[in-house]
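Task card 7
Instruction: Convert sequence to structure tokens.
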Amino acid sequence: MAQNHETVDEILEFIWTEKESGSVRKEDLLKIKTAEVTPDTIEKLFQENYIYEVGGEINLTEKGEPLARRLVRAHRLTERLFMDVLEMEKNSIELDACSLEHCLSQDAIEAICTLLGHPKECPHGRQIPQGECCKRTEKKIEPVVLPLNKFKAGQTGRIAYVSTKHHSRLDRLTNLGIMPGEKVRVHQTMPAFVVQIRETDIAIDADVLKDVYVRIEK
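Output:
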């Protein structure tokens, strides 16, 4: 009988996650609650070269490791997207992220990472594995989206999203016309930030603009 792909995914992701802080043994895999895991399922993972065992400890093979990395990366980036962009509550994002991680293409994962500015950690403080887009950024290629307070005088862009936990700040930004979809130009950064939205020049604190994420226009 063919393996259930989502069950395989859940096991590989579990192994990666557990090995971040410790070790994994066969009996640990049987405790996974998010998939139907049986001794036969685990044995097939050995046979199909996804995992191997040394001294009773389960490890990922060269075939299993990149699959687990991709799943963990997709899951944690999706959590960031839900929390930072869609402003969902931290305790409600886990199940939705679990569902979507199996569906996202590699291009979609890279696009989400770039949109969010290549975050290092998920909302729960766990490391997000690097992708190719992150490595390119480390080689000085600029991200597509930056906080507005990182813009230089003369730069323009279009607001992608606003991420703030302060409702009063969000209301203030909205009243000033600083909202997703609007084009923005930075006139000056010192001694204060002055930005142009439509035909209006606005002087605003840099600390406020760190919550405004803008897609750079070349």
